[in-house]
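Sharing in case it's useful to others searching the archive later.

Someone asked me privately for the predicted structure of RND family efflux transporter MFP subunit, so I'm posting the question and my answer publicly. Question first, with the sequence:
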Amino acid sequence: MHHFSPQPAGGRLPRMPALVAAALLSLGLAACTDSVAEQEAKPDRPVLVAKVHFEEIVPERTFVASIRPRVESDIGFRVTGKVARRLVQVGDTVAKGTPLAELDETDLRLQAEQAEAELNAARTALSQAEAEENRSTELRRRGWASEAAFDRQKAAAAEARSRLARAERSVELTRNNLSYATLTADTDGVVTATLVEPGQVVAAGQTAVRIAELGEKEAVVAVPEALLSRVRQGEASVALWSDRDRRYAARLRELSPAADPTTRTYLARFAMPDAGDEVALGMSATLAVKGGTGEKAARLPLSALFNQGSGPALWVVDRATGAVGLKPVTVVRYDAREVLVTDGVAEGDEIVALGVQKLDPAQKVRVVEALAY
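And my answer, the predicted structure tokens:
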């Protein structure tokens, strides 16, 4: 029986394992070479940066304000009477001396005529008393009148002179009262309220018309007790509801020393020296008061904040080398689009502002000044 051997002719064994190993080694080296080449050819990632700048934290508090005049006068008649006419309306601009309202002058004219009649009677009585005094003086000089009769005539003449002076003062008073029947403006201004109507009987001193002087305007606010110190020391500005983009400088001019018994707030008046004609009386506004605390923080974009559960951090860029590093930071406040950082970064550092979730510490970056679309 013959046995056949699998050996090929010549007695050489196949080298299949060695060939397979060589092939695998060649493929591995090629893959490593391709990976290194790909890594070397990978471009730097462009990033938009923001520069860190620390400044004092200035919390801002706002109050609802109303625009009021600095001086507003309540004007009323100086005599009692019935209103005959009201000559102005709310919103009218008046000059000093402009008639505002008139009273019925009937009774006042009668009083003036009565005073004139009494003045004439006093003059007549004085003339008679002086004539009798002269006669009594002549009779006494001749010895035909007694000393007592002379003294009586002299006293009667002095009384007549006093009655004449009183009648003259009475005439002046009634003339003044008659002139008071016409209410006039004491200063240039605008009418803000009319409190009387024709036919109404008013008392002396009762407010008839309210006039605001044409001068400096003020923002009036109610301040809670807890914010009094901030209002006293802070920097204030006013923005009208009709034009929120424009701000007017404001200065605290007056702060009520006592709280309102109902609201428990303090009335504060802020002068607005730069307010022009576009700021109308009665407008609504927002008064903002800033007060420094001494603490400094950097205001940075909210999109720059990176947090994967280990706390907030920022990617800091080295512009010279293109390297990035993640630094933990301390956040004191979050705003709608910004974040306030007090610690973790230094003044002047450049941090990545957008796309922080896609960064890798081993990757190089390239700083760009603006986004391109």
